[in-house]
Amino acid sequence: MNEVIAFWILSTVAVLGALVAVRKRNLIHGVFALLVFFAGLSGLFLLLLAEFIAAVQVLVYIGAVGVLLLFAIMLTERVAGDDDRRMTSRGWSWGLVAAVALFVVLLLPAIQELPPPEAAQAIDPSVKELGHKLMNPYVVTLEVLALLLTAALIGAVTAAQGVRMPKEEDSQE
Amino acid sequence: MTLHHYLILAAVLFCVGLMGAFTRRNAIVVLFSVEIMLNAANLNFIAFWRYSDNPELLHGPMFTLFAIAVAAAEVAVGLALVIAVYRHFKTVDLESMNTLREE
Amino acid sequence: MSTTTLALIPLLPLLAAALTCGLQNGRRAAGVAIVAMLGSCGLALSALKEAWGMEPTGDPLTFDFEWLTVGNDTVINFGFVLDPLTGLMAAMVTFVGLLIFIYSAGYMKDDERMARFFCYLSLFAAGMLGLVLANSLLLLFMCWEIVGIASYLLISFWFHKPEAAAAGKKAFIVTRIGDMGFLIGILLAFKTTGTLTLYNEAGSGILQQDLTGTVFGISVAAVISLLLFMGAVGKSGQLPLHVWLPDAMEGPTPVSALIHAATMVAAGVFLVARTFPLFEVPLYEEGILKMTHVVAWVGAITALIAAFIALGQYDIKRILAYSTVSQLGLMMVGLGVGGVAVGMFHLLTHAFFKALLFLGAGSIIHGCHEEQDIRKMGGIWKPMRVTSIAYLCGTAALVALPFVTSGYYSKDQILAAAWGEPLMRPVFWIAAAASLLTAVYMTRQCLYVFAGEYRGGKTPHESPVTMTAPLVILALFALGMGMVFETSIFAKLQGEVIHDNFVIAVSMAVALGGIALGWLIYRGRALGQAADPLAITPLVQKLWFDELYAATAGRLWALAIVIAEQLNELLLFVRDLAVLLADRIGNAFAIGGDRKLIDTLAFDGMCNWLRSAGHAVTRPQNGFLPGYLRLIALGAVALGVLVFWIK
């Protein structure tokens, strides 16, 4: 019973958060709505007995990604949001149509295809188990991920910094 | 709670994100939408793991973990690009960035 | 006598013609021609000897070879025939021809084109001999034409004289008219009998068959003979196709002697003689009218009128020319009333004395420094003794001086034959009148030329011996031939010598009376200065035959030219029309079709459509990111539906 209530509350929060995030003209408000969405999703993870993931979600998404987005917003826009420009892009109705269409398509398997298992399987959540799994057999993935993160770091720094066109031979490197 | 609930929820969230990506002019809001979509996918993973036959394989959390990491990296790089673009175009309005267009 | 020997008779002169064709040296050419003619003469005489030994009523010797085959079974033969008629003609042609060749060597020795002259003479001789020997109508016709060509070449030998060139053309064209009839006759004969051979070993020659069938009610043999006679009328200068003969005197005198006295003009007479069996067939089945009667009448009228015209001429050669026409008429009369023997006998005697007269005239002209008008002559007797004597012999023969000349015998037979047939009595009187006139005009001519004082410029002189020797030889023949050969010729040619006292009396009276008449009229006159009493204008003007022809045929010709020009204009108009039409159609296709349809519609249209299509295709590429995203989403939707459906 509690599970049902929790589900519905958390899902509402998540959906609302997402909606506000994409509909707000003021981007700071948007970011904060997004953070709420992340939080809702974390709760849903908890509900699905994936505590570690829930923790990681809060850490990474709310802590890092959200903050990053905030910084980016501050760096690129007047914070108050767009003034006389339109919020939506040209032909936004088409986008709506596409989204709805995809939703319908996604529903098709979601509704019909699966014979659903009735209940979630109970399992002892264990971080230790996760760690085991990471080391073997997923160790390669782990290393590749590390590589990816390094590459992303370097790429982000380079991209954000910009490429200076050397006018003279004695350019600053 | 059945699996279907989670699946439909994930679908809804995904399409919300999609709608945001299609509708807004601001590049950063598009990044918002991308994050929402990724999260919806993660939810799908965990839900399927939870309702699978042998959850001791921990395939759900593993994938989600990596997806989160990748998403974070992608946001970082994406925002760096947005900043770089902003420096050139003095805006992040997607409609203004049409130099790739055939005249 | 084999085919080769007979074939050589015409072939030797032909070879001489080919050899002299490219020569420049006249004397060498003369030598070649004379040698060839000598050979031919020898062969002809031996052929005559053999022919003379044949039975008169038997079939003649024939030598045929197949020339071409038409279809499956029609064979056209070429060949030669040997009988007394042919033998006689061949011998006469070669002998007289030889004498004239020798004469020409002297006459033409100063002419720069002498070699070419002998070439043409040899060609003529070859053609004439081939004509005489032919057993096939086709070969005969071919040689007929060769002779015509040679005559044209020889008449207009001095072609830089416009009169000579015109005379050559006239001769050829006028004889051509007759030749047209000849050709149709040949075709009709071929159609009727299926062959062109005259005598056949199998007895199926044209002259050996009895031809049946009628054309427009007239028997076919008579029609064929009429058509052949047309050719003879042209070639032998009978009325109305006689107009070319006097003009042909423009040629050198040897030419006149050989061709227009002795041989070529005799070809027509020979043709009638050769195909005589056809002439003897009655015109209508139940009638008695035959082609021979027609021939006799044509000949008689010709003889009379030509004799009249001769009275009015002043050119020495022209008088002789009209005399020839008249004598040819008499030959036709002879053929018509008496048959082959009578006509051919007169042809033979005439050949000799007319050739003599012409050669003599040539000698006189030469002696008078190329003067031909008799009014400018006179008193030739003393300076040119030999020529004068020979000429007088010829004149005597022509006038038919009784008993001592050959002409008397031949003309006597003609008159006798005419008298013998009651139907032909009118012809008899006409022939007698013509003989009278002959005597008159010849006396006139002789008085003009030989008597009195010379009225010309320089003194006349006698001709060289190359020219006088043939004259002497011919004179001997002119006098003696009649008496000597009459009986044998008539025997061999299946004729009958008639001795009718009445006729003899008439011919004597005509000859002597004519001489007396001429003597009376012309002797003592101041010839040349005073007017000539008999040369009245119509006669001088040749009875206006040429003018008549010019007015009618000439007008017709001008009309034909106008019609031809109009047709030409019409053709040009049609051509212009066609060009215009082609131009329009071409334009329609080029502009309408090509430019509008293909260029504008297809080509430009296609290009424009491609450009618009390309434009439309590039429109999604607008750099509009949200748009791209939507498209991706739509693609994903499509994929999902697809997967769902496949499932």
Description:
The complex is a heterotrimer of chains A (173), B (103) and C (647). In chain A, helix 1 (2-23) runs antiparallel to helix 2 and helix 2 packs antiparallel against helix 3. Chain A has 173 residues and is an all-alpha fold. Helix content of chain A is 71%, strand content 0%. Chain A has helices at 2-23, 27-47, 51-76, 92-113, 127-135, 139-161. Chain B has one domain: Helix Hairpins (Orthogonal Bundle), CATH 1.10.287. Chain B starts with a helix and ends in a 14-residue tail after the last helix. With 647 residues, chain C is mainly alpha-helical. Chain C has 22 helices and four strands. In chain C, the strands form two sheets. In chain C, strands 1-2 form a two-stranded antiparallel sheet. A two-stranded antiparallel ribbon of chain C has the order 3-4. The model of chain C has no long low-confidence stretch (mean pLDDT 83). The interface between A and B is large, with 86 and 73 residues.
Query: Largest interface, counted with CB-CB under 8 A?
Result: A-B, 86 and 73 residues
Helix content of chain A: over 70%
Overall pLDDT score of chain A: 81
End-to-end CA span of chain A: 63 Å
Tell me the structural class of chain C. mainly alpha
Shape of chain C: elongated
Tally of separate helices of chain C:
22
Query: What gyration radius of chain A follows from the Cα positions, in whole Å?
Result: 22 Å
Order of helices and strands of chain C: HHEEHHHHEEHHHHHHHHHHHHHHHH
Name some characteristics of this structure.
heterotrimer; B: 103 residues; mainly alpha; Helix Hairpins; 3 helices; 74% helix; elongated; C: 647 residues; two-stranded antiparallel ribbon; two-stranded antiparallel sheet; 22 helices; 4 strands; 72% helix
